[in-house]
Amino acid sequence: MNNDKFKGTGVAIVTPFNKDKTVDNKSLIKVVNHIITGGVEYIVVLGTTGESVTLTKEEKKSVISVVVNTVNKRVPVVLGLGGNNTQEIIESLNKLSEVNQVDAILSVSPYYNKPNQRGIYEHYKAIAKACPLPLILYNVPGRTSSNISAETTLKLANECKNIIGIKEASGNIEQAMKIIKYKPKDFLVISGDDSLTLPMIACGADGVISVVANAFPKDYSEMTRQILAGNVKKAQQLHYKLTDITEQLFADGNPAGIKAALDILGICKPVVRLPLVEVNSETRKKLEELIKKY
């Protein structure tokens, strides 16, 4: 299986909303075109940043359709489809006609139930068996309250041929290095943390699924390409150009921060759905100053 199309920069895109909290398709088209023009390698729709957990089934279908049609095969599209009910995910894979319109599935580790490693392994094994597409694991303990251990990741990578990689957002570089050292040759290790992408790729990771690149796709994807090519100095320059902004984007929660930045750039409104709220005035002010300087 050729996994090269998922190397480099993927972007977990936002779902823009109107002031009345309905999905803003016009701005969604704008976001997609802004990202592709910026030179990223692929797009991830309905991830955490896309506020997928507060979208209805009908809205999800519509968002996938708008994104796929706007992308128009210019770059691959990955669909976020995960949760804490294994059977429900399997049923979605079987029933969702939209699954046939995308190139891969990104599936977050079960949250709230807090399964042990055997439970996580069996969960992903069952999904992989039902999944007609390449499957990317997503480890984000800060949101799920459970970690996919390096051993579990490697076991799944070796046993399930359609599990092609992991978005590793544990913040644990040692864990990422263990996976990189012992993984099968074509298995991808993808940074899930914008601020750690450069060091993770320096350790042997294959790219990133980014939040920051919603707003700054050109510099962020170029930074990723430079470090993948081993051009450390060039990559460092772009990395440090973005670090202050990156910090502020997450200072008052994601995706509120990135939506504030996109609003400042005139791409979409800063509206989020409850229980999320927009960034506070202090964060907004700092973002405005940093973007103006940028």
Overview of this protein structure:
There is one protein chain. The chain is of the alpha/beta class and 294 residues long. It has one domain (4-229): Alpha-Beta Barrel (TIM Barrel), CATH 3.20.20. The protein is built from 12 helices and 8 strands. It has an 8-stranded parallel β-barrel with strand order 1-2-3-4-5-6-7-8, surrounded by 5 helices. Strand 3 (77-80), helix 3 and strand 4 (104-108) form a beta-alpha-beta unit. Helix 3 runs parallel beside helix 4, helix 4 (117-130) packs parallel to helix 6 (150-159) and helix 6 (150-159) packs parallel to helix 7. The radius of gyration is 18 Å and the shape is globular. The mean pLDDT is 97.
Entry keywords:
294 residues; 8-stranded parallel beta barrel; globular; 46% helix; 13% strand; alpha/beta
CATH superfamily: Aldolase class I
Order of helices and strands: EHEHEHEHEHHEHEHEHHHH
CATH architecture: Alpha-Beta Barrel
Q: Could you name the CATH topology?
A: TIM Barrel
The overall strand count is 8
Return the structural class.
alpha/beta
Helix content: 40-55%
Can you summarize the main beta sheet? 8 strands, parallel, barrel
Q: Gap between N and C termini, in Å? A: 40 Å
Strand order of the largest sheet: 1-2-3-4-5-6-7-8
Q: What is the number of independent domains?
A: 1
Strand content: 5-15%
What can be said about this structure in brief?
The chain is α/β, with parallel strands linked by helices.
